[in-house]
Design brief:
By secondary structure, the protein is an alpha/beta fold. It is built from 18 helices and 12 strands. The structure holds 2-acetamido-2-deoxy-beta-D-glucopyranose (NAG) (6 copies). The site of one 2-acetamido-2-deoxy-beta-D-glucopyranose (NAG) has 4 residues, from helix 9.
Length: about 500
């Protein structure tokens, strides 16, 4: 009772115009970060991709280098080294070879050592290889910077040919026999790659397992925000805050008022208004995309939403205040604390194209071939982002970071080549999550009409992005457990 009284008091004070320093964050957003992020957490453009976390490599897990061809479509282009991990603990000769790629981030020992994917490989007496995607982690052709011309070998087709080359000419030290069956595995963008490997190289790849794969390339990906709004019971409150409080200020052209708004979020260092607007939608997107239910932590979605119903005063201004406090608390909890942290995380101008890094490479890929621009949904009554987050914002980032790149991502070409929503995908098992915003671009979308065999798609109830790859835990929902059994049984039929 006391807490609520204090809270209401603080809010009333702030809303009526006095600037009182408050520390209501801990009461407002009782957020907890996950001990282990979903293996592919953080895959949406710009705000969702973090720097690779340094991880201690278990000494038992050997790291290898594969001598890969730089350009698969011309002769004598030279070679580069592609890193990979191998888990052969439960491998028996003749067992299937699971080829995993993390896609848009450097290889990490988690998947090959302790994940559902490693358990799956073990249960087939298979070998699990996790192969780094070109231009991520340490697997770069010899280039000095990530300028547009240097990125020309970063294409989906080149990446697929890397995997095909690896399967055709597996490293001798792995003792893989010629007749071994290969299963390609990936989550998120790497799930696309798994799907497309099976499609493009059916004689090399016997089966594929694609988790949360957004196989439809799309420029204006407004459905992302729509799905976030659908997952949040307080979406109306957040929408009101944007529509009636933040957006009128951002659109007013009043620099003083805009600066004050940025200061309210502790984000005054973000000079670009669109970077700022994008930054303040990062927490809700991240919470929904990485949502996990666990008895050990309060439900992250309910924690975000509770404060909006714990106050008596009901107004967009109150929602705007609560939301700003929540965003600040989230940034603090997730280690985005200093002005330098905030600039590094949210300012377009701080994306580094001078040195090798995953974020720049991924940006190049969606700017070039995939799109996935997470825009404000113009036709929706409810939205969790600002209306200034439009296609031009993302295209501007692309043009700024990679001058001379295509004027717009080659969406049509990508979908034509790989099938998109209407593709024909055989012996590919798909798992998606019904609250994952990316599901809108997967085979589980209402707009998808893929030609697939019966019973090859599973939608996890309450599932977020690539939930199924996490190591099985006793607290997993029934639906998540069923999904993993489904994957196993489906692969048994094909192997
Ligand atoms: C990779 O292969 C090429 C061509 O076969 C060879 O010239 C080169 O020395 C190899 N590099 C390494 C590091 O093994
Ligand atoms: C390989 O995967 C299995 C199954 O997850 C795991 O038990 C084993 O520890 C892994 N091996 C290594 C060397 O990490
Ligand atoms: C391949 O065979 C060699 C020699 O028998 C053995 O030392 C090595 O561990 C094997 N590699 C794998 C990945 O099983
Ligand atoms: C701009 O915003 C400031 C701060 O909110 C306000 O005091 C000022 O009157 C506004 N200026 C105009 C021209 O509306
Ligand atoms: C949030 O929305 C709910 C339902 O529309 C409403 O009852 C509540 O008062 C709102 N909260 C605030 C702070 O406006
Ligand atoms: C940030 O988090 C730390 C500990 O996690 C806490 O002590 C501190 O009060 C928080 N700061 C703000 C401004 O919320």
């Amino acid at each position: 009772m006391m807490k609520y009284f204090v809270l209401i008091f603080i809010i009333a004070t702030i809303v009526s115009g006095c600037s009182v320093k408050v520390n209501a964050a801990s009461i407002l957003f009782n957020l907890h970060t996950r001990s282990m992020q979903s293996p592919q957490a953080g895959t949406s453009p710009i705000t969702e991709v973090g720097p690779p976390q340094p991880t201690e490599v278990p000494s038992s897990l050997p790291l290898f280098y594969y001598n890969q061809t730089i350009d698969h479509f011309s002769k004598n282009s030279g070679n580069f080294l592609q890193r990979y991990y191998v888990n052969s603990t439960f491998y028996k000769e003749g067992g299937p070879i699971f080829l995993h790629t993390p896609g848009e981030s450097g290889i990490d020992p988690i998947i090959p050592t302790s994940s559902f994917v490693s358990d799956l490989a073990a249960s087939f007496n298979g070998m699990l290889i996790s192969l780094e995607h070109r231009f991520y982690g340490e697997s770069y052709p010899p280039i000095n910077d990530l300028s547009t011309p240097n990125m020309k070998f970063l294409t989906i087709d080149q990446a697929l040919s890397d995997f095909a080359n690896f399967i055709k000419y597996p490293p001798k030290e792995l003792n893989i026999t010629k007749d071994s069956k290969w299963v390609m595995v990936g989550g998120s963008y790497a799930g696309n790659l798994a799907t497309w490997m099976r499609k493009k190289f059916p004689t090399l790849v016997s089966a594929a397992y694609a988790s949360s794969a957004p196989i439809e390339a799309k420029l204006d990906f407004f459905e992302f925000d729509q799905r976030i709004a659908k997952a949040l019971p307080c979406a109306q409150n957040i929408s009101d805050a944007f529509r009636f409080v933040y957006d009128p200020i951002l659109l007013s052209g009043n620099e003083t008022a805009i600066l004050e708004l940025k200061q309210q979020f502790g984000l005054e260092m973000l000079e670009d208004n669109k970077d700022f607007a994008s930054a303040i939608s990062h927490p809700t997107a991240s919470i929904v995309q990485n949502y996990v239910q666990s008895p050990d932590i309060p439900d992250p979605i309910l924690s975000v939403c509770a404060p909006f119903s714990q106050v008596q005063s009901s107004s967009p201004e109150t929602s705007a205040f609560i939301y700003a406090e929540g965003v600040k608390a989230f940034l603090n909890l997730t280690g985005i604390i200093t002005p330098e942290d905030k600039l590094a995380k949210f300012a377009t101008t701080s994306i580094n194209t001078k040195e090798k890094n995953d974020l720049a490479s991924y940006t190049y890929q969606y700017c070039n071939e995939l799109g996935y621009y997470q825009t404000f949904p113009k036709s929706s009554p409810i939205s969790t982002r600002s209306q200034i987050i439009n296609i031009d914002y993302y295209q501007g980032q692309c043009d700024f970071l990679f001058p001379g790149i295509t004027s717009s991502p080659t969406i049509k070409k990508t979908n034509k080549k790989f099938g998109g929503f209407n593709g024909k995908f055989s012996k590919t098992v798909f798992v998606n999550g019904d609250i994952d915003p990316w599901t809108a671009l997967t085979v589980s979308s209402e707009s998808a009409n893929p030609k697939v065999e019966k019973d090859t798609i599973f939608l996890i109830k309450g599932g977020s992005h690539v939930t199924d790859f996490a190591p099985p835990s006793p607290s997993d929902s029934d639906s998540l457990q069923e999904a993993r059994v489904f994957v196993f049984n489906t692969l048994v039929k094909w192997l």
